[in-house]
Every structure is written in C-alpha cells, then in structure tokens.
Amino acid sequence: MNSEPVPDPNSERRSSGDPTSSGRGETDTPAGSSPNGGGGQNGATPPDDGTDRQRFVLHKPGGGPVRTGRNLPLAIGSGIVLGGLVLLSIYPFPEVFVAITSAAVLIGLRELARAVSGGGVTLALPPLLAGGVAMQVCAHFGGPAWFVGATAITAIVALSWRLRAGAEGYVRDAAGNLLSLLYLPFLLGTWQLLIATPDDGQQRIVAFIVVTISSDIGGYFAGILAGRNKMAPVISPNKTWEGFAGSVLGCMIAGALTVELMLGGPAWAGIVLGGAVVLAATVGDLIESLIKRDLGIKDMGRFMPGHGGLLDRVDSLLIAGPVAWVVLTLLV
Q1: How many domains does the structure of the chain reveal?
Q2: d(C-alpha 322, C-alpha 105), whole Å
Q3: Residue 321 belongs to what domain range?
Q4: What's the predicted TM-score (pTM) here?
Q5: Is residue 58 part of a domain?
Q6: Is residue 48 part of a domain?
Q7: Which EC number(s) does the record attach to this protein (predicted)?
Q8: Which of 177, 83, 176, 163 lies closest to 132 in space, CA to CA?
Q9: Alpha helix locations (H) across the chain?
Q10: Are 66 and 41 in contact (CB under 8 A)?
Q11: What is the per-residue pLDDT across 164-181, written as a single tens digit (0 to 9) for each?
C-alpha cells in the first residue's frame, strides 16, 4: 500500500473574489504532512502521487496560511495587456473585436480539449474551431438570427463528426462537444451581439466589462477585509458571503454609473444590470471551479503569465455576457 500522502486533485486555485488569481492560492495542508516540511519555498510542501498534480501550501511565520503564491507583477502586466488589446479592438473599429473573440475561441477550445481529454472525452475540434469562429462573424454582422443558425449547424456537424468513431463513448463525447460549443463560442458570441448594437454598441461592451470587473474588485477587497463565512465550501472554499456582498455593491455602483453616464439610461437600470451581472459572474466562477474539480486539474492552461489559462480569466465574463445583453436590450 502506498504510504505517501495523496494530494487532492480538486484543490482550489482562486481566492475569494481575487481579480488576478492565478491558480496558486490558498489550499489546505494534506493530512499527515507537516505545514513546514521540506520540498518547497516558504514552507511549501508538494506531496507527489506520481502525477504532475501537486498542492502547495504557503504559511505565515506564525503558521497560518496566506493568500499568495502568484507572481503579482506578471499578473498585473498580463491583465493590462489583455485590457489594452480589448480597448484597441473596440475603438475606433468595432469590427476588429471579431478577431479578438475568434482568437479566444481558438485558444479556449484547445484548452478545453486538453482538459477534458484527461477524463476520456474527445472533442471534434475541426468543426468546433471552424464553427466557433463562424459564430462570432455571424453574431456581429448578421445579428441573433444568423448567430443561432451558425450555432445549430456547428452542433450538427460536431455530432456528425463523432459518428465515425462508433458507438462506444458516443454519448460522453457528444455531451462534451455540446458543452464546449455552448460554454465558449456561444457565450462569446453574445459579446458580439452587445458591440454590434446600433449607435452605442461600443459603450455597451465597455459597460459590461467594467461592471463585471467591478464584481471581482469589490469581492476581492471585501473578502480580504471582512471575509469570514464560507459561501460554497465544497466547490470554492475561499469564497465568502462577505466577499459576495462586496461584489454586489461594486457591481451596482458601476452599473448605475456606466448606464447613466455612458448609455444615457436610468440609474435604476444600471443597478438591475449590476445585480444580474454579479449573480452571473459568481455562478460563472463556480461553474469553472467545478469543471476543474471534476477533471482533477488546477488550471485550464498556461496562456497568460501569472493568470493560468485563458478560460481561467474569462470564466466570470463568459456567463455574464448573455445576461448583460438581455438586461441592456430590455431596459436601455
């Protein structure tokens, strides 16, 4: 019998509301291991189970765990570069934004394919990649009808692509293909619907991004200053209700300001937008955490220095996109 401590593959990377979390946040010390044992810096103990999945625990001098471990300068720099690329793609030619979300589709689907392959799921990458890019183009230039049509055709082709591999594992692979299609290309396509809105599409996409980021910032500081009560300890053990309250406050303030000042709408509509986005962003974060726990991985990829994979950075934005589009379409 193996007597070595077995690391938990479901360790959580994200600290409460941390907008720049990279997958090396606070975790629990494995049973039977010393918090100040050898093998890592600052008292980190990386037990080995024969795989590349290890849990690293950082401790304060007094013995308590700390919420750190990431390269903060690299994380901030990567975030600035990403934000700058998005803004440059929005102004003055919003059509360039299609290239940004198309690149995200190509990178994100490859991250998903590698991640789910560990669970025995094989994605039909060629039709998903081609169809995912087509969905971005159709959403921007053709509107909702073309977008839905491109999504349906991509789903049909992806399901048909898998037929040649036979019946064994078909349901498993089909479910994985449809999840990947909806989780990334479809949700990203709603960003194109936002920016393609006549007259104020550029302002709408900026408002959406600002409100969603405010959720992370508000939750991060509230969680650090007052976080006590765990929100979803089984899924995301570092999330607290106090951090969630900070996210709600940050989103509602940002929503009221952006809708009134940028879109010329009523402040109450911005408050509704903020409330809807914070719920969607929180759910999006928990969904990605649960996907990684089920697959036994810590990060979806290593695309961005200090951030992990691309999907690790846009998890909240993905789920919040369609919610923001619906709220702004109906109320502003």
Answers
A1: 1
A2: 16
A3: 72-331
A4: 0.73
A5: no
A6: no
A7: 2.7.7.41
A8: 177
A9: 72-90, 97-117, 125-161, 170-181, 187-195, 201-226, 241-262, 267-295, 310-331
A10: no
A11: 989 999 999 999 999 999
